[in-house]
Every structure is written in C-alpha cells, then in structure tokens.
Design goal:
Pfam families: Rxt3. The structure is a single chain. The chain has 287 residues and is of the alpha+beta class. The protein is built from seven helices and nine strands; from the N terminus they run H-H-H-E-H-E-H-H-E-E-H-E-E-E-E-E. It has one domain (2-30, 47-97, 115-261). The strands form two sheets. Strands 1, 2, 3, 4, 5, 6 and 9 form a seven-stranded mixed sheet that branches. A two-stranded antiparallel sheet has the order 7-8. It starts with a helix and ends in a 27-residue tail after the last strand.
C-alpha cells in the first residue's frame, strides 16, 4: 500500500499539469465566408481553394495550450533532442543509407502497407524539447502524389496545429500549409508561439527540388484532437466521439528551413571555369 502511494505522489504534479491542459484546450473553428461572385478574375490561390472546397482560413486555437506548457516547462529550448531523416517505410532513425534495403519478396507485405509511425515513442521527460526531421523533396512530392508514401495513402494524421505523435510529419507539414508549389500558407509553424510562420528560405518555383529541415516541438497528450480540412488535407479526429484517449505525446511544427538545390553549375567542366591570365599585360604605375 505504501509503495502505491509513493508512486502516485511522484506523478501527481504531472497529473495536475495534464488537468490544466485539458481545461485550457479549445477548439475554435473560424471559417471565412467565400467571396461573393463579382465577376473578378480569380487568383491562383482562389482557384486552389475552390478545388479543395475549403475556406480561406481555418484556425484551431492552441495558444492557451502552448502558454500552459511554457509556464510549466519554460521556453522552448534551442538544443535539439535528436535529428532524424524521414523515411516512408521506416521509423525515425539514422541516415537512410544506413538502413537495410527492403527485400523484393516482401514489397507487398503488411509491414510496408502499414508501416510503423515515423516518430519514435518519446516519453514525458521529452516534453517541450525539439526534434529535427530532414525531409527530401522527393518524399514530399510522393506524399502529394500518394505514391510510395503509405502514411499519406492511409491518411495518418490526427489533430490540427497540435497533432498526435503517430501523425505523419509530411501530412502535418501539408496540413499546416507547406506546399511544393507557389500556394503556401501564412501560419506554417503553429507550435511557435512567437512566430507562427517561422520559415527560413522560400519554396522555389514548382518542379524545382529543395530539401527541408523541420523542427517539431514535443507537447503533452491532449484530451482530444479535432479533425479539420485545410490545404487539401483532411485530418482525423481523436477522442471527440470516443472516450479513448491518445496514449502518446503530441507535437507541432516549430520551425522550417528550406534549402534549394542549385543545379545551374552541375554539368560545367571545372576546366572551363578557370581563367587563363598568362597573356594579361601588367600595367605600369600610373602617374
């Protein structure tokens, strides 16, 4: 009996924090009305919104949750807990080149059709810490196409702005407004309370490869996660219609760094870049 009471006391503070977060959590869906037909030409963004059949702006309030986490755990640290390279079939780990190749005879197996969540199972002691995910243009492109991207095909995303830790990071990026085209959202890092669009670099013109480094902020478990459609991705709800709580942590996009691949000099022979100065005449001193 004494051992049980001691274990309960150790977790009492965390339980109180969770209770505060549950009490503060709000789901506020604000849908802007579609502009009435005025005969004006539609912009590319308007065309895409009509194609996706979604409002211009949809927001789910998470400010109070972030403030509660800040009060409890302090400001988000600059130190990165881990750096992972995204892989469509493997959980987060070392560089992809170090992962074993998938045998051809199991290409259609259940493990490939339903891969494990990308993020490893972080514990409560990792709350309010950053994890960096390296993402290639090819993986992001495949997520849009729905090819060679089983997590996108399975729509493995739960929540809005704050997501379950088994949500696919690429779907989360897309849901927050990051695109491989010119149509990008204005609040792509909603877990950053100081800057909701903390993005370094610019998405290049459509079809131009680029790479990403994405910092995610690990957050506590929420009581429920809303399902919202935005930027062509419809996230799934968790804990709203059923009382079963999520059994892992949450996370949100905190920062994005975009690096364009410069291929303009890839096929230039280095010999042709050298300048022959042997025939140059040296000028004498000017009077």
């Amino acid at each position: 009996m004494a051992m049980y009471k001691h274990s309960y006391d150790l977790n009492e503070e965390y339980r109180r924090t969770q209770s505060q977060i549950y009490g503060l959590q709000e789901t506020i869906l604000n849908s802007a009305k579609n502009a009435s037909g005025s005969g004006k030409l539609k912009s590319a963004a308007d065309t895409l919104r009509q194609r996706f059949n979604e409002p211009e702006h949809t927001s789910v309030g998470c400010d109070k949750v972030l403030q509660c986490v800040k009060n409890k755990y302090g400001p988000a640290p600059s130190r990165v807990l881990a750096t992972l390279e995204y892989h469509p079939y493997h959980s987060g780990g070392p560089l992809r080149k170090e992962l074993p190749a998938v045998p051809a005879e199991i290409q259609s197996s259940f493990s490939l059709a339903m891969p494990r969540p990308f993020l490893p199972g972080f514990s409560e002691e990792h709350i309010n810490q950053l994890v960096t995910i390296q993402v290639s243009y090819e993986d992001l492109r495949d997520s849009y196409r729905g090819t060679d991207s089983p997590r996108a095909q399975n729509n493995e995303i739960w929540g809005c702005n704050i997501y379950t830790d088994d949500s696919d990071p690429l779907l989360v990026l897309r849901h927050c407004g990051l695109s491989i085209s010119d149509y990008n959202g204005a609040h792509r890092t909603p877990a950053n309370a100081e800057n909701s669009d903390n993005v370094q670099g610019t998405v290049p013109p459509e079809g131009t490869p680029f790479d990403l480094e994405v910092d995610i902020l690990l957050l506590p478990t929420l009581q429920s996660y809303p399902g919202v459609k935005q930027f062509g991705v419809t996230s799934r709800a968790w804990g709203i219609d059923t009382p079963t709580p999520h059994d892992g942590l949450s996370y949100g996009i905190y920062a994005i760094r975009i690096t364009s691949r410069d291929t303009s000099t890839r096929n230039i022979d280095p010999q042709h870049q050298r300048v022959d100065t042997s025939h140059w005449e040296t000028e004498g001193p000017r009077i």
